[in-house]
């Protein structure tokens, strides 16, 4: 309820409960979408790292193969879970 004093001071009421819920729901949807994008990118990068690990394996670069394979496994696992 606005009083004369509130009008003189330029007080604006806080946002309504419904407006707040809508804003929070929109932010939640945005965060979920960004999480899906990040996980999709991790799966793609994991696949690319796996291909590089296979190439390094055929080139008999054991250290590079093991390191790239571990990266591929980690990225793919994070993307799937």
Question: Could you write a compact summary of the structure shown?
Answer:
With 81 residues, the chain is mainly alpha-helical. It contains three helices and no strands.
Q: Could you name the key traits of this structure?
A:
3 helices, single chain, about 80 residues, mainly alpha
Secondary-structure map with pairings?
Elements: H1 4-9, H2 17-58, H3 62-80
Question: Can you characterise this structure?
Answer:
The chain is mainly α. The protein contains three helices and no strands. Helix 2 runs antiparallel to helix 3 (62-80). It is rod-shaped, with a radius of gyration of 26 Å.
Give the C-alpha Rg. Answer: 26 Å
Please give the largest β-sheet. none
Mean pLDDT: 89
Number of helices, counting only DSSP H or I runs of 4 residues or more? 3
Helix content: over 70%
Cα separation of the termini:
50 Å
